[in-house]
Amino acid sequence: MEAILTRHLDQDNPQNLAAYQATGGYRSLNTAFDLKPEKIIETVEAANLRGRGGAGFSCGMKWRLRGADAPSPRYLVCNLDESEPGTFKDRYLLYGAPHAIIESVIVSAFALQAERAFIFVRGEYAKGGHRLIQAIREAETAGLLGRNLGGSGFDLHIDVHLSGGRYICGEETAQINAIEGKRPNPRPKIPRPSTHGLWGQPTTTNNVETLVNVPHILMNGAEWFRRLGINGGCGTKLFCISGKVKHPGVFELPCGTPARELIYKHAGGLDNDERTLLGFLPGGASTPFLLPQHLDVPMDFDPVAEAGSRLGTGSLIILDDTTCPIETVLNLTRFFARESCGFCTPCRDGLPYLVQILNAIATGNGSADDLALLDELCSTIATQSFCAFAPGAVMPLVSSLKDFHEHYEQHIITQRCPFDASRKEAV
Fold first, then answer.
1. Can the peptide bond before residue 191 be classed as cis, meaning omega within 30 degrees of 0?
2. Where does the record place the NADH-ubiquinone oxidoreductase 51kDa subunit iron-sulphur binding domain (predicted)?
3. Of 126, 261, 318, 352, which is most buried by a Cβ count within 10 Å?
4. Is the bond preceding 258 in cis, omega lying within 30 degrees of 0?
């Protein structure tokens, strides 16, 4: 398959504007400026581009939520606050194709008639963020950014906002608060950012991978984009694969590629051929587990949902039969407990309590009552918390209680981790 999103990643100097333009970079601007913004939105909607940041919501539909008569100023936020454990696809775009990000922001901002755009970069990606700032300056010098772009009468200024840290900054309303200089707590669901976002103005937030698709859709058409996918998927997808595989990494493949092909072909299979697959998280750390019987599920939003999980960021974390699922879930829950913004009690106090119980089970100090308590706590935390952070945080734990129940029981009955023996055998 021809690389689309990653076609610039092999350049020796990805910041070099001339090199980027020599391979077709920024060509979509002329196409965009010759069209009405509504036509661009129609094309993106017809392509069935769905959000690559986790939710999978229709990009075109999200753009329409702003409303055609939205008051000025209007804002676009490109979300590059990639902090989900097991997810590292956006980093490839930041370090390997900064001008592709800038081009996509320009085209998308024109479609939304957003006069100002922010690229919100994860704090740990500061080096890439500074390179992106340099690329923006180069684009401005070349007349690709600024006033009256392409003679269209459209003005655009792009700022890079380097995050101060914390996973919660990836939630769009917390991100908006962070850009405004406030504590990054999530805002109430109503009013929506599409009408009352940055400084109370219409604001659209999209993941960077989502936006980088837009220039290609504009240049090649909606039907072309839909045909790139397989098994009902549309477009290509950047899949991250990590864990117990021979070749972890980022792979650009058709959306809808089965998990079996991702793991055993592109990632080279399990890192020890004598081991067997225990399970995998299909969409990053905040998604429910899938099991070996799900290997032929197409990695696309709806098929993964039908299998009982979420595609999320498309980041597969692989467990083999030497990996303790309880320790895996404990490690993830520790992360989420640390990253809670602390705004609401179920999340702030509930997640550390889960860590305490899981740690007792993992270290041989658990009891049978702990399983019922974990189930009850997860239900309370998921339904009573203020935003979507906590429901996502407990998803791996909830699914592990169902899919790996016997492993929990073995830890409690034997008062030790039964995987210790299998690890020694593997060595």
1. yes
2. 326-371
3. 318
4. no
Q: What phi, psi does 77 have (nearest 5°)?
A: -115, 120
Closest CA to 271 of 299, 310, 312, 242: 242
pLDDT for position 7: 79
The first and second tokens of residue 368, run together, are 């049978």
Can you tell me which residue has the tokens 């994860």? 122
Nearest alpha carbon to residue 20 among 127, 98, 121, 105: 98
Give the separation between CA 359 and CA 366, rounded to whole angstroms. 8
pTM strictly above 0.85: yes
> In this structure, which amino acid lies at residue 206?
N
pLDDT at 421: 60
Cβ neighbour number for residue 412 with a 10 Å cutoff: 18
Per-residue pLDDT at 152: 87
The torsion angles phi and psi of 3, rounded to 5 degrees, stand at -65, 135
Segments of the chain with pLDDT less than 50? 426-427
Other beta carbons within 10 Å of 316: 27
Angstrom distance (rounded) from CA 418 to CA 411? 7
Q: Among 154, 65, 67, 172, which residue's Cα sits nearest to residue 113?
A: 154
Give backbone dihedrals phi and psi of 95, rounded to 5 degrees, phi first: -80, -25
Distances (CA, A) of 18 to 11, 148, 418: 11, 22, 58
Residue type, 161: H
> Token pair for residue 104?
């996509």
- The closest of 108, 328, 77 to 198, measured between CA atoms, is 77
Residue type, 404: F
Q: Phi-psi category of 232—alpha, beta or left, where left has phi over 0 and alpha has psi -120 to 50? A: left
Q: What is the largest CA-CA distance in the chain?
A: 74
Instruction: Give the DSSP letter of residue 170.
Output: G
H or E element in which residue 238 lies: strand 236-243
Q: Which pLDDT does position 427 carry in this prediction?
A: 42
CA distance 260 to 231: 14
Structural domains in the chain plus CATH codes:
17-227 (3.40.50.11540), 229-320 (3.10.20.600), 325-426 (1.20.1440.230)
